[in-house]
Design brief:
- The chain has 5 helices and no strands.
- The protein is mostly helical.
- Helix 4 runs antiparallel to helix 5.
Length: 114
């Protein structure tokens, strides 16, 4: 999967370079200047998308990765809480609420640090 994303990013990078070249040529002609500027903007967005394809997921989308990791750790904590408590249903619910509070605090701390 990583190899395919890298190849797709490289091909998109080449395509965006060609689109940028067309935009520069259109900007040289005074009549087509507005078209050239919009094509240059599209090429810039394509460059950004191609670079994000080539980077690892944690670097390309750090905020999404934090949410994903906290969600994963919350599931693990809730599983551990439900396995370790063999008390009444109310005590189990209280343990899950405590775990939920811990996860929310952790998520808040991670969001503040990024």
């Amino acid at each position: 999967m990583r190899l395919l994303r890298g190849i797709a990013g490289a091909l998109m990078w080449i395509a965006s370079a060609l689109v940028g070249l067309v935009g520069v040529v259109l900007c040289v002609t005074v009549i087509l200047l507005p078209v050239g500027i919009s094509i240059l903007g599209a090429a810039r967005r394509m460059f950004g998308a191609s670079v994000r394809l080539m980077l690892p997921r944690a670097v390309a989308h750090p905020a999404k990765e934090v949410k994903r990791s906290t969600r994963r750790s919350a599931k693990n904590l809730k599983k551990d809480a439900s396995r370790s408590t063999h008390k009444s249903g109310k005590a189990l619910g209280d343990a899950k609420d405590t775990v939920g509070k811990t996860v929310r605090k952790k998520r808040k701390r991670l969001q503040l640090s990024t």
